[in-house]
TrEMBL record:
Family matches, as SUPFAM superfamilies: Winged helix' DNA-binding domain
Entry coiled-coil feature ranges: none
Protein known as: HTH-type transcriptional repressor YtrA
Keyword DNA-binding included in the entry's annotation: yes
Pfam families: GntR
Length: 128
């Protein structure tokens, strides 16, 4: 079973780790390596369970363990996100997520949104 968005693969073979542990470990590894950046919105428990062919309780158990470890954070009805390690990084990730959501609502393509953000960053960080 493989998740297309997260590239999570659950090995159902005998002797493999429990599915929740495989899921927990793979999300944690991707978050720590930066493959899942801070602020990345994870699928809902039900959505990921369906995608992987797992019980919702299995995914919920993995999410609870990840949250206890500080790898992810739940923001109420807004969803579950990869947590930032530090306060300023967490704030930047939240701002980036808000920008991405706003740009999407405005109908910008990913390229247009990236170009607008890059232009703003260059303007701010370029010494004059």
């Amino acid at each position: 079973m493989t998740s297309t968005n997260l590239r999570i693969r659950i090995d159902g073979a005998a002797g493999a780790a429990a599915p929740y542990e495989q899921l927990r470990a793979q999300i944690a590894d991707r978050a720590r390596s930066g493959k899942l950046p801070a602020g990345y919105k994870l699928p809902t428990v039900r959505g990921l369970a369906e995608e992987l062919g797992l019980a919702a309780n299995t995914v919920a158990k993995a999410y609870r363990a990840l949250e206890a470890d500080g790898v992810i954070e739940t923001r109420g009805r807004n969803g579950t996100f990869v947590a930032a390690a530090e306060g300023s990084s967490r704030e930047a990730a939240a701002a980036a997520q808000a920008y991405a959501e706003r740009a999407h609502r405005l109908g910008l393509t990913e390229t247009e949104a990236t170009e607008a953000a890059t232009t703003a960053l260059r303007a701010r960080y370029t010494t004059r």
